[in-house]
Design brief:
This protein is mainly α. The two termini are 79 Å apart. It is built from eight helices and two strands; from the N terminus they run ααββαααααα. A two-stranded antiparallel ribbon has the order 1-2. The protein has a domain of 117 residues. Strand 1 and strand 2 form a beta hairpin. About 6% of the residues have low confidence. Helix 6 packs across helix 8. The radius of gyration is 51 Å and the shape is rod-shaped.
């Protein structure tokens, strides 16, 4: 059952203007909130009480600064911390990619050295095969020449001198045949050796071209990430100085102090 006091308050509440319909006890902080939201803080002519008509939610955007100026500073600090963390992570990621690419280049350098050694070994092998081939041809030629001479000598001993012209002709033909076979064998050996050497050089050049292309790609990765690593972000130099010294004082002089120490 409503009391006289309840009825009185309800009557007062109905005398609000500008859309006011509620009566309330508020403290000083709550008063500041209403004012920050655009409340008028004037006297209601019907009740003689303070009223805060005209307040809007849109005006509440500036309320935090009105109530406590440190809120804005805290927001900036959080933003700065987020930017520093993000920048630091990008810097670390860039440094990791640089190290990975540098390791890849070193591996390619080793592959290039191995390719060079393989070329030298291949050439030595081909040279040795050529030497053995020429020795074999020379041996075959010498053996054929001795055999031909023995045959001619045998014929000369057992026939009349009237056949000397015929014997000389046969000797000349045998010598020509031996020389022809020597020449053909030598040319074949040279062609075979050239083909082997050409294949070795071709494989080596192809491998070196591949290595060069891969190194250029990795160098591009290094160059790109070095730019990322060196790019500025909020708090970069202060953060580096603090990591090195562990003191705020040194960090505050980060650019001069860090440059002198070679940190960045």
């Amino acid at each position: 059952m409503a009391t006289m006091a309840d009825n009185h308050l309800s009557s007062l509440a109905k005398k609000g203007i500008g859309g006011d319909t509620e009566l309330a006890h508020i403290n000083k902080e709550e008063k500041q909130v209403l004012l920050a939201m655009g409340g008028s803080g004037t006297i209601n002519p019907n009740t003689g009480l303070k009223q805060y008509a005209g307040g809007t939610l849109a005006a509440a955007a500036g309320m935090a600064t009105t109530l406590n100026p440190y809120i804005a500073a805290a927001g900036l600090a959080l933003t700065a911390a987020s930017m520093f963390t993000g920048g630091k992570e990008k810097e670390r990621a860039a440094r990791a990619k640089i190290k990975e690419a540098e390791a890849g280049i070193r591996e390619l350098d080793r592959a290039g050295e191995a390719a060079g050694q393989a070329l030298i070994a291949g050439r030595n092998q081909v040279d040795e095969e050529f030497r053995l081939g020429t020795t074999s041809i020379a041996g075959d030629t010498e053996a054929a020449s001795k055999k031909a001479k023995a045959s001619i000598d045998n014929v000369t001993e057992n026939v009349d001198m009237s056949y000397s012209g015929t014997i000389q002709h046969q000797e000349s033909e045998m010598t020509s045949d031996i020389q022809r076979k020597n020449r053909e064998s030598t040319q074949g050996l040279i062609a075979k050796t050239g083909a082997k050497m050409g294949a070795l050089i071709g494989e080596h050049e192809a491998e070196m071209s591949r290595i060069k292309a891969e190194k250029e790609k990795l160098q591009s990765v290094i160059d790109l990430n070095k730019k990322q690593e060196k790019s500025w972000y909020l708090g970069k130099y202060i953060g580096k100085a603090y990591e090195k010294t562990g003191t705020v004082g040194a960090a505050s002089l980060s650019y001069v102090y860090g440059k002198d120490k070679g940190w960045f």
